[in-house]
Amino acid sequence: MAKQNPIYLIRVYAAKMLIEHAMKHYGLSHSDFNMPSDLFNYELKLMPLRDFEALLCKIEDLTQDPAYTAKLSQSTNLKQFGPFVQLIASSTNLGMAIKRVNTVHNAIQSGVQVNMLLSGSIAKWRFLSPTTLPQARIHESILAAGSFLRLLKLFHGEDYQPIAIHLTGTPSSNQHEVESIFNCPITWNCPNTQVWFPVKDITCPRRFELPTSQIKAFTVEQAMSYMLIPQPHDILKVVFELTKYALFYGYPTLEFVADKVGMKPLTLQRRLQEQSISFTNIVHHSVCDEAITLMSTKLTMDEIARRVGYKSTASFSVAFKRMYGVTPQLYRQDYI
């Protein structure tokens, strides 16, 4: 059997952050991105990393601003930490916050490696990503370094300056603007992203307060969702998540999902058959699983049926009962 290429996923909230920034500061609209706006109401969802890479490139093309990610990363709006603001806010010192941020990166995107290296009196925060598209790679590197710099400034103040920053990829035409925004020496074309700062700064205690409106507790379901990001070679779990992603574009098709994993439809079908499961069975499971999740919301059953790709509630009810033995109405009544 031929070796399967890894398939990387990333949380929707990362794309949501980019698009909201582009809409606010560059006058763009959701229609400019050819992505369902409803998708961004579900920031816990997973999307293909290749779609995120394409988005990074598209925003640069639309804004004609190669420094847009550097500007985004320096926003004082703590929403850039997404659903993890509470983890940052509750850290009693910078060292604890760094440990949590490093763990969080693995829950945001599969295939990344984030760690701290100590070299004498210098601490080196390092971010390694599977992103390969050159134009996207430099933007992701700027975002990662900028986000970590924002964390350092959160604890040390807005005037804080790291020792140096290493970025992957070729510098853009706005190289000097990026360097001005980060306000520290930058080395380009590095094998991975790094932020260097004094080791002694790690022990800095928390001196800031966050508005309570920005601190939201995780539900058990959300916590479990963040922990269960599929590994890049786990084809069954990856396809399961991508069928949920496909629901925002209509009922999941083999062709759509195969394109997202970079395979021909027949190749994907064969890979699944080797695991003793069909694409159709995965779709049925993911659709019903998504419907059960939506049952805990205020959506009506008609709205849930449409959200999971069915044109009629009756056909959805038949499919759901075939899977669980009861109608979705009874399931919602008895188990939700």
From TrEMBL:
Keywords: DNA-binding, Transcription, Transcription regulation
GO terms under cellular component: cytosol
Record carries keyword Transcription: yes
Domain HTH araC/xylS-type: 253-334
Gene Ontology MF, one: DNA-binding transcription factor activity
InterPro entries listed in its UniProt record: AraC-type_N (IPR032687), Homeodomain-like_sf (IPR009057), HTH_AraC (IPR018060), Tscrpt_reg_AraC-type_HTH (IPR020449)
Keyword Transcription: yes
Stored Pfam families: Arabinose_bd, HTH_18
The protein's name: Transcriptional regulator, AraC family
Source species of the chain: Aliivibrio fischeri (strain ATCC 700601 / ES114) (Vibrio fischeri)
